[in-house]
Amino acid sequence: MERFNPLNDYLFLKIMGEKGDEVQLLAFLNAVLADSRQKPIKLVKILENRVITPEILGNKTSILDIHALTDENDKAEIEVQLKDLHNMEKRTLLYWAREYTQAISAGVDYSELPRVITINIVNFDNIKLNRFHTIFHIREDIEKDYVLTDVLEIHFLNMVKFRKTENKDIKNNVLCRCLTYFDEKTPENELMEVIKMDAAIQKANERLNFVTQDKDFLRNYHMRQMEMSDWTTGINTAIEKNKLEMAKNALTNGFSADVIHGITGLSIDDIMSLQNDK
Length: 278
Prior knowledge:
Structural class: alpha/beta
Oligomer: single chain
Distance between the termini: 50 Å
Strand content: 15-25%
């Protein structure tokens, strides 16, 4: 049986961000926000269902968003980004600003501007801290406890660091259960365990089982998976070509094979073959 990747952004949207997904979305939001707010969200309204076209699925830079509104009129935006485009910090600020400024119109009191929470699930190391969950606000540089305003709140959930976390507390920590479910590398027995112990994850999994029976969905899902694989292959190919060019230039300038191996990681045999081709 095929194992589906819940963090394929097309599938993630289907199981977490469409009308009818409020139960699992609410549980996930409360799990993420547990460390940054005093009381849980009681209700969530999903604001947007995006129509997914082949053009969007094939666009290497597109991201499929989940937009929601809480019972306290806070806006929540969730992004899944599995590729490191080396601009995630600036991009998330742009998305935050877009959501924040959309509420501005002539005569609006600034006090009515919403609190906007952006949650980024990433599959690469962009935040150089040890924790898999990091939270950012606008704080004073010296008096770190002083927050200028709470209207900006940005979360990063780092799947690379989460996988490396030992002794994940899936029994008591809802966020650990959610990320365990989202991780396609979770062992089958552990996956079944978190599904059984969490009603919201059960609902997400039921939704996954339902949408993956649809032929049109499967075509789009696999198109998205193929696009991500093609992008990864392209990047790896470019890196290897760059290494070969570096090695050729280093040989021309008299560097030894051992030194070039240390710089590029290419094997001694590959480097010697380049030397023989000169």
